[in-house]
Specification:
alpha+beta; Immunoglobulin-like; 2 domains; four-stranded mixed β-sheet; four-stranded antiparallel β-sheet; 9 helices; disordered N terminus
Length: 349
């Protein structure tokens, strides 16, 4: 995570803070990986969803264009331009459709077939959006991805075609850039909200039960960073919270995404000058740490348990022998004397 992105996320967090109940995210401090995922799951676990028919009324609060009675449809919107068509809330609900612009319906960003249609997330506002029925039908239950040679393109530029993202080359649906971050954060929300509640869920090209596959999470993290949280998302998150009493943590605190799925990110605090090198590769039996004025090193396993504490007392180099560790992912926090810290992911193979 670069400094600019960190600054932006902190600004967003400050803006949205008043919309959150006091202490809503208490207990997440210092957590990474599955430990943070588990804690967030316990915080946002809520079944106070509207009914399926109740989604239509909920959209008046969550997806109404400011100052209008139109639906904010991510599949037809043209940012800074004129949409090819717009839907009137209530009046233009699907119904049948024969082409784009006929009506809007309820799009499950996390496709219902991925959950074996078990109904758990069927009416969860944080990922069920009002979208053009025809485009929703074209998206079907395809994974999201990035398309090079499109077999079909919507009027606002959404595409269907073979995926160009490494790890999967099947057919995918690509939204326009303006809403890639929105979709990424919605899918991350579902993955955390229904974590451990997915025993009956199935698999897809993008998911395994509530787990997002590696190729997909790498892409979603990139979308998440390239398309930061917008005011639209902030307002939608607040409106959804008012209805179903839970929040999307990745809208409130975007840095949670990297802490869970890519915790190699570092934060420059108090002019921290620690440099961490893992070499010759993550499978080495020794993790070598170099840096100026290192005070201590802590290493945690994926569930947040402390497995190594090394007091360096001002030394410039140290090492941790990981040959006795079980295979898996660990998280190393290096603390400098001036109070700065660097968090790194260590893979033991």
């Amino acid at each position: 995570m670069n400094k600019l992105y960190l600054i932006l996320t902190l600004i967003i967090a400050a803006v949205t803070l008043n919309a959150q109940p006091q202490g809503y995210y208490d207990g997440t401090e210092g957590l990474v990986g599955n430990a943070l995922k588990t804690k967030l799951h316990s915080i946002i676990k809520s079944d106070d969803h509207p009914s399926y028919s109740g989604l239509w009324n909920a959209y008046y609060q969550t997806d109404k264009r400011p100052g209008t009675n139109y639906v904010w449809d991510i599949y037809s919107d043209v940012p800074n331009g004129t949409p090819p068509y717009q839907f009137v809330l209530g009046s233009d609900q699907c119904g049948s459709y024969n082409g784009e612009g006929d009506c809007y319906n309820r799009e499950h960003l996390w496709a219902q077939s991925w959950t074996n249609n078990d109904g758990t997330e069927k009416t969860d506002l944080h990922h069920v959006y009002p979208t053009d029925g025809w485009v929703n039908n074209k998206r079907d239950n395809y994974s999201f991805g990035e398309v090079g040679n499109a077999s079909w393109t919507s009027q606002n530029g959404s595409k269907l075609g073979p995926n160009t993202v490494s790890g999967y080359n099947g057919t995918v649906f690509e939204p326009i850039d303006e809403y890639k971050g929105d979709i990424a954060r919605a899918l991350m929300y579902v993955s955390v909200r229904y974590y451990t509640e997915d025993s009956s869920w199935g698999t897809s090209d993008m998911t395994n039960k509530s787990i997002i596959k590696d190729w997909a999470i790498a892409m979603l993290l990139r979308w998440h960073e390239e398309d930061p949280v917008s005011q639209k998302e902030i307002d939608r998150n607040n409106a959804a919270y008012n209805i179903q009493k839970n929040r999307n943590p990745f809208v409130d605190y975007p840095e949670f995404a990297e802490k869970i799925w890519d915790p190699s990110w570092s934060v420059d605090e108090n002019d921290c000058t620690v440099l961490v090198n893992i070499y010759p590769n993550p499978a080495t039996s020794t993790v070598n740490i170099k840096g100026e004025n290192i005070e201590a090193v802590y290493m945690y396993n994926a569930v947040g348990q402390l497995v190594v504490m090394l007091n360096v007392s001002g030394g410039k180099q140290s090492a941790i022998d990981v040959s006795g560790f079980t295979t898996g992912i660990y998280f190393m926090n290096v603390i400098s004397q001036n109070g700065g810290s660097v968090l790194k992911k260590v893979v033991v193979q």
